[in-house]
Design goal:
The complex is a heterodimer. By secondary structure, chain A is α/β, with parallel strands linked by helices. Chain A has a single domain, classed as Peroxisomal Thiolase, Chain A, domain 1. Chain A is 32% helix and 17% strand. Chain A is built from 13 helices and eleven strands. In chain A, strands 3-2-4-7-1-8-11-10-9 form a nine-stranded mixed sheet, with helices on both faces. In chain A, strands 5-6 form a two-stranded antiparallel ribbon. In chain A, helix 1 crosses helix 2 (69-76) and helix 6 (164-178) crosses helix 10. Chain A starts with 8 loop residues before the first strand and ends with a strand. Chain B has two domains: 11-57, no CATH class; 59-135, OB fold (Dihydrolipoamide Acetyltransferase, E2P), CATH 2.40.50. Helix content of chain B is 6%, strand content 36%. Chain B has one helix and eight strands, in the order H-E-E-E-E-E-E-E-E. In chain B, the strands form two sheets. Chain B has a five-stranded antiparallel sheet with strand order 6-5-4-7-8, with no helix packed on it. The longest helix of chain B is centred in the first third of the chain and has 8 residues, at 15-22. The chains are: A alpha/beta, B mainly beta. At the A-B interface, helix 4, helix 5 and strand 5 of A face strand 4, strand 5 and strand 6 of B.
Chain lengths: 392, 135
């Protein structure tokens, strides 16, 4: 018997904003623009939005107030039944939205992220949460997420011989997708293997191109029931399955740096609900804060075994024209950084067939985006969420 | 010039750890009920939820679980230290902690390399437990 939540809910609209380096804008303004555009894109009446969930806010920059769900709702002119905000990157927005819908508490849930990280000079040094006080780690010169993930990647190099040879395939393939996406920050900039290998170490084993962008901008989407979706503007992206799993253990005590991360259990749940196998997936949009995150996530989902990444990624498998396209907007590495909304909204737009030159199918010599697997990841592998979307 | 790098910020849970460091004792909590040895310091045993624990002294030896090499100074106080190694060391008693690897070139550091504690007293009021390769 199919899972009772399979194909019951759908994503019905996406909101974009200008992105990259956009001076003179508050973080709140990006939330508002993304939300207003998502409402308009879906064709939902503003007053019908009865759930609002926003991603975590970071320390406000440029003298601004903290972005709260109250502020976003106030400025949107809505008074929802459910207001919620994630704390510290525990990624559960879609699951929460579906829980609210399924419980009959809401009919249309709006989910949003926005930040002026680039123009405000955010460096993501203190956003990771550890068991120790920030200064206890800073005393040893440890700052931020780059070195946390670099340590995980180093352990994986030791355990199953991964490394820059594999990660360069991810960076270069995603850049090729970004070169087809006029919205992407790196649209006009190519990237070769030589460029990748010539780049400076940031925190070894990561070079510049292993790390995601820091962006100004925002992104939002709306989820509702399939029944309601049929009365709206867009052809909906159906939610076939989802899962989440939060190992929660700080990277300093983690025994899963080299996998299996939360992706293993989360992916299993999502595939089971969708009632498909990994072979049915036609494309992936994977949370890619770092190149290694893409590798370990796909590995834990079961696309290849530990140490088999080298063969699997070769021959442009995830690039335009490849057998399994991954991160078709350019992703967090080459499009823009809007947390899990960069991958999720790209999956929605691909399924809706609204991706222009990068559209999956004949245009990019790839399979049609019938079923797209999406991941979100928070903390340093402490939180993982999986979504499987399909065409109606 | 004084010491300009960040210094630890002990709280009610972690003060006994940092107090031990000042005396060059690397200490962890051992659960009085199930014997589980934990770090970071905590009110509760994550294994059996006992509230009772004793502080025990580590032999100060372990192996490098993983490491990263900083080539960029995210804080200017570390500019003259580049390149430097942050690492997770797994102590013989079980706990893992963040530290630095000193006493060898960054390019010689390896996962699973045996190491021993060496105390860095350059920070006023604090001693930092760092690790060097065992000969």
């Amino acid at each position: 018997m199919p899972h009772h939540l399979r194909d019951k809910y759908a994503i019905v609209g996406v909101g974009y904003t200008p992105q990259g380096k956009i001076d003179g804008r508050t973080a709140l303004s990006f939330h508002l623009q993304a939300c207003a555009n998502a409402i308009n894109d879906a064709g939902v009446k503003r007053k019908d939005i009865d759930g609002l969930i926003i991603y975590r806010s970071f320390t406000p920059l440029l003298g601004e107030p903290e972005v709260t769900p109250y502020l976003v709702a106030q400025h949107l002119g809505i008074s929802p039944k459910i207001l919620s905000q994630e704390a510290n990157c525990a990624r559960g927005h879609l699951l929460h939205a579906i829980a609210f819908l399924e419980a009959g508490l809401c009919n249309y849930v709006l989910i949003s992220y926005g930040d002026n990280a680039l123009s405000g000079g955010r460096r993501f040094l203190s956003e990771a949460t550890h068991g120790e006080s920030f200064k206890d780690n800073a005393a040893f010169g440890e700052f931020g997420l780059v070195s946390n993930y670099a340590m995980a990647a180093r352990r994986a190099m030791f355990e199953f011989q991964t490394g820059p040879d594999i990660w360069k395939e991810i960076a270069v393939s995603q850049r090729k997708w970004a070169n087809l996406n006029p919205r992407a920050v790196m649209y006009d900039r190519g990237l070769t293997y030589a460029d990748y290998l010539k780049a400076k170490w940031v925190v070894e084993p990561f070079r510049t191109y292993d790390t995601c962008l820091i962006s100004d901008g925002g992104r939002a989407f709306i989820v509702t029931s399939l029944e309601r979706a049929k009365d709206l503007k867009q052809t909906p992206a159906l939610i076939m399955g989802f899962g989440s799993y939060h190992p929660s253990i700080d990277i300093h005590q983690s025994d899963y740096m080299a996998g299996p991360t939360g992706a293993l259990e989360s992916g299993k749940q999502a595939l089971q609900m969708a009632d498909i196998t990994i072979d049915d997936i036609t494309a992936c949009e994977i949370y890619d804060c770092f190149t290694y995150t893409v590798e370990i996530t796909l590995q834990d989902y079961g696309f290849f075994g530990p140490g088999e990444g080298k063969d699997w990624f070769s021959d442009g498998r995830i690039a335009p024209g490849g057998d399994l396209p991954v991160n078709t907007s350019g992703g967090l590495l080459s499009e823009a950084y809007f947390m899990g909304l960069t991958p999720l909204t790209e999956a929605v737009m691909q399924i809706m067939g609204r991706c222009g030159e990068r559209q999956l199918g004949p245009k990019t010599a790839t399979k049609e985006p019938e079923i797209v697997l999406v991941s979100d990841n928070g903390g340093v592998f402490q939180s993982h969420a999986t979504m499987i979307l399909r065409r109606l | 010039m004084g010491y300009d790098k960040p210094i630890p910020e002990p709280n009610a849970d972690t003060s006994p750890f940092w107090d031990g460091c000042r005396r060059h004792q690397l200490r962890f909590q051992r659960c009085s009920d199930c014997g589980h040895i934990r770090f970071p310091a905590s009110f509760l045993c994550p294994g059996c939820h006992s509230f009772d624990s004793q502080w025990i002294e580590s032999i100060g030896r372990g192996k490098i679980y993983s490491f990263a090499i900083y080539h960029v100074a995210f804080d200017q106080a570390f500019k003259d230290s580049l390149p430097y190694v942050t690492a997770i060391v797994e102590l013989a008693e079980g706990p893992r902690l963040l530290t630095n690897i000193v006493g060898c070139r960054p390019s010689d550091v390896r996962c699973d390399m045996p190491v021993e504690v060496v105390w860095d007293d350059t920070a006023a009021k604090f001693a930092l437990p760092k690790f060097r390769p065992l000969p």
